[in-house]
Specification:
The protein is mainly alpha-helical. The chain has 13 helices and no strands. Helix 1 packs across helix 2, helix 2 crosses helix 5 and helix 4 runs antiparallel to helix 5. It is globular. The mean pLDDT is 81.
Length: 419
């Protein structure tokens, strides 16, 4: 399936996600306020970290090698069994550790607010969340676009029902629990859409670990762990500084801006995971790789720019529609945030070459370096330029990231050409 067809089909799932996100944001804005958004963002960052440590670190590698071994069932079998065993064991261990450390983690995330119950729910749901992510990674690698899209649509609807209901009736505590419970219940819908596939059996994903396969996955585990630590931790530090420099409401405004970016950029980022990464992984010839990157830039960058421009022009009614009048200060961030979003996608189109070609050391170094630079640029900018400085730092950081990715990819291609 082509990049255009994949984008169009995936766009259906993103539209559903945008619709459910709109409704959820409205419920959260009415019932939780800006301070509630800050708490939700804090737990979402922690969930991203703990699920990656539990087992999610293997999923990018699973997508890459599932695509690469498309016509090699024996090697795929070893891949699925190794990844599945790591996922189950890692999730169980991480869940047990989280239960025993839940009180300490609660103090770290929420201070004197008691949301420990939400962390216990996360520990209980962790294995279901991880298995669901693994199955979606396999679907992406197998290029089962239709099933992948349907599973994501169903997941969005489940998340809306669970999160909306719990937030409506139980407030912030319910919304925090729903962050884990909704993802766990999505496994049921994913299993439904995978039920007739030959590989969707427990025996395929459980057994002894194949050492050569594990060696291949280690690079992706290391890259995913770097991402899991660097990006969420940076957001948590920025959120804490927002509260210290301004107040918890401004931290909530900043999280609201990130949610808007996340919702509309999902069309682009999920297409990259679903089509672009497997495609980059399977390409062997340098000229073909250059052509694929060029095609992606021609299609994806104009689409991202059009989305960003429309959202900027509609920023004030959009904030009222998605949130409430209490969130008006978010509009200060839109200009620079939209610029940063477009640059971010451009840099990711090049950055995926590092992942697709398993350039582990380079990926980890750049991930850590640019997460650190984002934090320090943000800290400087909010003191120099006020609240809008957070978005200015975001755009500037991704501009530097784009330049760096371009230099790395060009240098890598030159090395491949040299005898």
């Amino acid at each position: 399936m082509s990049l255009l067809k994949t984008s169009l089909l995936n766009g259906i799932a993103v539209c559903v996600r945008m619709g459910t996100g709109l409704v959820l944001n409205k419920i959260f804005a009415i019932h939780l306020g800006p301070g509630g958004f800050a708490a939700i963002g804090q737990l979402q960052n922690f969930i991203a970290m703990v699920t990656t440590f539990a087992a999610g670190a293997v999923n990018t590698g699973v997508t890459k090698y599932t695509a690469e071994y498309y016509d090699e069932p024996d090697r795929k079998g070893l891949l699925f069994r190794t990844a599945g065993t790591l996922t189950v064991v890692g999730s169980l261990v991480a869940g047990i550790v989280l239960v025993f450390m839940s009180a300490s983690v609660n103090r770290w995330l929420f201070g004197d607010q008691d949301y420990q119950q939400a962390l216990i729910w996360l520990a209980a749901c962790l294995i279901l969340i991880s298995v669901n992510a693994l199955l979606l990674a396999v679907l992406a690698g197998q290029k089962e676009v239709r099933r992948y899209v349907l599973a994501n649509i169903a997941s969005s609807l489940v998340g809306l029902m669970v999160s909306g209901s719990l937030a409506w009736f139980f407030g912030l505590q319910g919304a925090l629990i729903a962050l884990s419970l909704g993802q766990a219940l999505s496994l049921l819908t994913t299993l439904y859409f995978c039920r007739r596939l030959e590989w969707c059996r427990v025996s395929v994903f459980w057994g002894g670990i194949d050492k050569p396969t594990l060696t291949l996955l280690v690079k992706f585990i290391a890259m995913a762990l770097a991402t899991a630590l660097a990006a969420p931790l940076t957001q948590m530090l920025i959120r804490s500084d927002m509260i210290a420099v301004f107040d918890v409401a401004h931290a909530g405004y900043w999280d609201a801006m990130n949610k808007i970016s996340g919702i509309y950029l999902a069309l682009i980022t999920t297409t990259l995971s679903l089509y672009y990464l497997p495609r980059i992984s399977e390409i062997r010839e340098d000229q073909e790789l250059r052509k694929e990157i060029g095609s992606a830039f021609k299609l994806i960058l104009p689409a991202t720019g059009a989305f960003a421009a429309a959202i900027y022009l509609l920023r004030e009614p959009l904030v009222k529609l998605l949130f409430s009048a209490d969130f008006y200060d978010v509009t200060q961030l839109f200009g620079w945030q939209m610029v940063g979003d477009v640059i971010k996608i451009a840099s990711w189109l090049l950055g995926y070459v590092l992942v697709g070609k398993a350039m582990m050391k380079t990926f980890i170094l750049t991930e850590i370096a640019f997460s650190a630079s984002l934090y320090f640029f943000t800290l400087y900018a909010i003191h120099q330029f006020g609240f809008k400085g957070a978005a200015m730092a975001y755009a500037f950081n991704y501009f530097l990231h784009l330049i760096t990715m371009y230099g790395i990819v060009v240098q890598w291609r030159l090395k491949r050409r040299s005898p």
